[in-house]
Amino acid sequence: xxxxxxxxxxxxxxxxxxxxxxxxxxxxxxxxxxxxxxxxxxxxxxxxxxxxxxxxxxxxxxxxxxxxxxxxxxxxxxxxxxxxxxxxxxxxxxxxxxxxxxxxxxxxxxxxxxxxxxxxxxxxxxxxxxxxxxxxxxxxxxxxxxxxxxxxxxxxxxxxxxxxxxxxxxxxxxxxxxxxxxxxxxxxxxxxxxxxxxxxxxxx
Length: 204
Prior knowledge:
Blueprint: H1 2-15, E1 16-21, E2 24-31, E3 34-41, H2 52-60, H3 65-77, H4 83-99, H5 105-118, E4 122-125, E5 131-135, E6 139-145, E7 151-158, E8 164-165, H6 167-174, H7 178-192
Antiparallel strand pairs: 1-2, 2-3, 4-5, 5-6, 6-7, 7-8
Helix pairs in contact: 3-4
């Protein structure tokens, strides 16, 4: 009996991430790479006799997962004295992105923003919401997007120079090979950090 309870307890701990700050709690549960719920709430919102997970499931079951991702991002943007909280939330957001299918413009933008954050790059969306920029001190990428979220083109440029289309990066995004795309960005950053290097070569 005790052994079975311990196993269930470990499974629960693996699949549920909880973080507390400023009197609020963030709970994100992922089962089989599928996110089930995410929320920020005040302890006063919850009846002490009602299980926490049941409360979250009933309150947030109908919310789309784009809202969930935005919710976690807002939590990460808040100032916190404990850096471990930020790492926990970032890990949760990465797992959400890994489980989420990219099927719209904003979900693709969120995916690109997360990749940029992982690689230490900046990111922003153009006013027309048709281009997502991934930026560093020495170079930047333009990811041209269609309203459906599909990628029209990917361009790379030095700051101050005209951007040039990059077919290998375009193919990676179109085939949804996001991890490979992220690794290519890491290689690109390393190449630009070599003094005197201004030409980019990709081996695919």
